[in-house]
Design goal:
Layout (H helix, E strand, L loop, with lengths): L2 H14 L5 E4 H8 L7 E7 L5 H11 L1 E2 L4 H8 L1 E5 L5 E7 L2 H9 L1 E6 L2 E5 L2 H11 L2 H14 L5 H15 L3 H12 L5
Parallel strand pairs: 2-5
Antiparallel strand pairs: 1-2, 3-4, 4-5, 6-7
Helix pairs in contact: 3-4, 6-7, 6-8, 8-9
């Protein structure tokens, strides 16, 4: 089995035991919904809420090696826990607390990454929102890949609503304008 899938299974099994809400995002979700590409790590969102992050981060760090010095404080400051699975693969766990992230968890569906390996994965629309919001060059390419591969099957109203709310918080409305053009033209424009 692919080493990233093994890492995703290991961390996913750990999170399932206490019934934590999580889903795959990032490169593994792109393989499901966008233009498949290689990825070097596993990306997950874990619903922690606000103020409870340490209750999730501490058990994870007891089980998995942190990838940065003082991984707990880094995670609490940056809302992302950087760990390494036992097979040496990197896993990035984003802490979720926003209404969008709660909705994303409710919409996540089980997906079979490999025979017998089923993990929750975010929807195509939620992946598009995450990628458009991040707006880094790789994320823009991934967002475009989702639009192209989903060929008009995306709920654009859902996407634009949630992206607008997030971009209002970030005070970057131009991201919504670019995303709207991408949905219309299937091309990311600066």
């Amino acid at each position: 089995m692919n080493a990233l899938f093994v890492a995703a299974k290991e961390v996913g099994d750990f999170m399932r035991a206490p019934k934590w809400q999580f889903c795959l995002i990032g490169g593994l979700a792109v393989q499901r919904w966008g233009e498949p590409r290689t990825t070097q790590d596993v990306g997950l969102t874990l619903l922690t809420g606000l103020g409870n992050e340490e209750a999730f981060a501490s058990p994870l760090l007891e089980r998995f090696q942190g990838r940065v010095a003082d991984a707990l404080n880094f995670a609490l400051r940056n809302r992302v826990l950087l760990i390494r699975a036992s097979n040496g693969r990197d896993v990035d766990i984003s802490f979720g607390a926003l209404e969008f992230e709660e909705t994303m968890m409710a919409r996540a569906e089980p997906f079979e990454l490999a025979p017998g390996l089923i993990l929750p994965i975010c929807s195509a629309e939620d992946l598009f929102v995450l990628k458009a919001f991040a707006a880094r060059p790789r994320d823009r390419i991934d967002a475009q890949g989702v639009v192209v591969r989903q060929k008009g099957h995306l709920d654009e109203g859902y996407i634009l609503h949630h992206l607008t709310v997030l971009c209002d918080l970030k005070e970057e409305p131009e991201i919504v304008m670019r995303a709207r053009r991408l949905l219309e033209t299937k091309q990311w424009q600066p």
